[in-house]
Design goal:
Layout lengths: L2 E7 L2 H16 L3 E8 L11 H6 L6 E3 L8 H22 L3 E5 L3 H12 L4 E4 L10 H10 L3 E4 L2 H9 L7 E3 L6 H5 L5 H8 L6 E6 L10 H13 L4 E6 L7 H14 L4 E4 L4 H7 L5 E4 L3 H4 L7 E5 L12 E4 L3 H11 L2 H8 L10 H15 L16
Parallel strand pairs: 1-2, 1-4, 2-3, 4-5, 5-6, 6-7, 8-9, 8-11, 9-10, 11-12, 12-13
Helix pairs in contact: 1-15, 3-4, 4-5, 9-10
Length: about 400
Amino acid sequence: MKKKFCVITSSRSDYGLLKPFLEKANIHEKVELQLIVTGSHLASEFGHTYKEIENDGFEINEKIETLLNSDTPVAITKSMGLALISFSEAYNRIRPDVIVVMGDRYEIFSAVAAAHVNQLPVAHLSGGEVTTGAIDDAFRHSITKMSHLHFTSIGEYRNRVIQLGENPETVFDVGEIGLEEIKRYKLMTKSELKNDLKFEFNLRNLLITFHPVTLENNTSKRQFENLLHVLSKRTDTNMIFTKTNADTFGRVINRMLEDYVKTYPQNSLLVTSLGRLRYLSLLQFVDAVVGNSSSGIIEAPSFQIGTINIGDRQNGRVKTKSVIDCPPTKNGINSAFKKLYSPNFQKILCSLKNPYESQDGSKIILEVTLDYLKTRKDIKKEFFDISVKNI
């Protein structure tokens, strides 16, 4: 009998990284793939990105609406409560054998909490990471404690999951599986991107995504103003902006983006969601990823391009030498651009290796999880104590 693998995706970012696993699970002879879509996927203001999932050939078993027409802390908390109720009801309908989730979003936290109460085992991808500037950090570690199998992207993160009390026998370093598709994708050419996006490439080109810093007291507006001020002076540069995730106060940034692109239409383009293929394809032809998205740390190094990482949102992640950290000030951002285009920095990019690259990690996740389900009796697990000697 096939095992029901219920994969949950809440945003364009986790879907893109989960896609290689979804493709393998969808054709595996011992797996019945179930897919629950929630969060920003279902909102028109974020581009109704569930349609991309359907266009890729996946059947969506459940669509769980959680977003309210607000992104204040109260609204986000209410969304979490709604998700907790709705996921429990969904599990009762589709009866999965295991829940598969990635990352750290508040929607995913609610989904895993509901699974825990319903005594469903959880396989968690991308645990052990640290992003001290975002509320996601605490959610990620909480998800780890409610999960039973852990698939981390590098060894350092594996060690951190074990430090949280998880048995080393249940923690596997598989790389960032979303990078698997870079090698096998037929990426779009510059001409195809130009026609598809109606975007003219310039001497210099940037891909920009800036999310709210959710553990700071409403600083995102001022930080983003500083970034836009610096960008407005770059007359030799064309820019593609993508909108924020469904984070606290993200709508403020999106409105600022809309105003900026109206003011500078000659060299800027705003896209609600690029989709995985267009996003990866653009990384071939831009000089850098700018902002504070994890893609600048995880995907960009595979294309040997730079990243200007602004502020504290991604603090704690392991970064290559291609990532330029800078404070969210005008001077700090200007200095980062000077470094980006300096000959010494460009030389570093030529020999760059991405530590997150995966060697068929999605296949390992499938095999390990199937083996676990063969012998699983319940979801009990012991806290793995690290002795003082081993710390």
